[in-house]
Amino acid sequence: MKQPLSLRAHLIIGAAFLMVGLFGGSIVLWHVALGHREPPSMFLWLVRHTHALGVVCVAAMSVGLLQVRRGWRSIDQIRSHLADIHEKPAGRLSSRYPAEIAPLAADVNRLLDQRDAMVTRASLTAADLAHGLKTPLAILALDGDRAARDGHAELAASIGAQVERMRRQVDRHLTRARIDVSHLRAAAPIPVRESIDGVVRALERVYGERDITFDLRVPDGMAVLAAREDLDEILGNVLENACKWARTSCRVDARAGAGRVVIVIDDDGPGIPVEVRARVPMRGMRADEAAPGSGLGLSIAQDLVQAYGGHTSFEESPTGGLRVVIDLPSS
């Protein structure tokens, strides 16, 4: 691929054309100022062709300004590309810059690579630490159950409360690590129906005894820009929450338009009061403290949706339960 002209070359060429234009323009102005007197012989031909000289001057100055503008445009391009990377951290600067700017672009790309590596290492470390704590927490929970069976109710309650508190911290750090890494993944077209079918098959096994029916109205061929594991996490958390509260059914609708895909998930459960609904996606918030879970499911889903430039909303469902609306960019 041909390398673009250097910034220096653009400026030199532009300056040369500007000088030609200014020189010719000065001759025209000089001729007009002297009232069309006979010029020196060396300028005689130029003065006799004043109109043509004027056209050449304007053209030369236009070309000169265009060259200068093209030279500075590369600086505007790198600023624009950096703004794009701010929105899509997985991107990198192009290698097609003038010779003076190309080393800067390469240095920025190296810094971005180092940043991604550091974020990935930190996220993996947090995930490893969180996973390492899960087994000791499970043992402590069993000890709490044993204490309750032995009649030590107060001790069992204390152990249970602390285990639940630590589990929430573990889940929070696992979620944070996952979301941080999701910013670095390159989004690709992921079929929505395929992801939903996989999640529903898993939930049918978990909630099979409750005979919950799934009404899926998702057209084939509809796709969103995301990583498959993140889309599965989003839909899995929202659908699991719907199954947890549904009485008999969960419904999933999807529509596409204007570069977006909107997925609507309804359940026929008891619903959530308006004053509580706004706080549902907050970390650790649960509509019913007696229900199992860490209260992070909808928060995780919302954070992942936002990581891909989407948004979620929580409304009252026509079936009486909760409606979760997920808006993501389409492929």
Major sheet description: 5 strands, mixed
Number of helices: 9
Gross morphology: elongated
Strands of the biggest beta sheet: in what spatial order?
2-4-5-7-6
Termini gap = 29 Å
- The name of the CATH topology of the largest domain is Heat Shock Protein 90
Compressed to H and E, one letter per element, the order equals: HHHHHEHEEHEEHHEE
- Compute the number of strand runs: 7
| Low-confidence residue ranges | 283-294
Question: Based on the structure, what is the oligomeric state of the protein chains?
Answer: single chain
| Name of the CATH superfamily of the largest domain | Histidine kinase-like ATPase, C-terminal domain
The tally of structural domains comes to 3
- Overall mean pLDDT stands at 77
Radius of gyration: 33 Å
Note down, in words, how this protein is organized.
The protein is of the alpha+beta class and 331 residues long. It has three domains: 7-100; 119-182; 188-329, Heat Shock Protein 90 (2-Layer Sandwich), CATH 3.30.565.10. Mean pLDDT is 77; it is low at 283-294. It contains nine helices and seven strands. It has helices spanning 7-33, 41-48, 50-87, 102-149, 153-182, 192-206, 228-245, 274-277, 297-307; strands at 188-191, 213-217, 223-226, 249-257, 260-267, 311-316, 322-329. Helix 1 packs antiparallel against helix 3 and helix 7 (228-245) runs antiparallel to helix 9 (297-307). Strands 2-4-5-7-6 form a five-stranded mixed β-sheet, covered by helices on one side. A two-stranded antiparallel ribbon has the order 1-3. Strand 6 and strand 7 (322-329) form a beta hairpin.
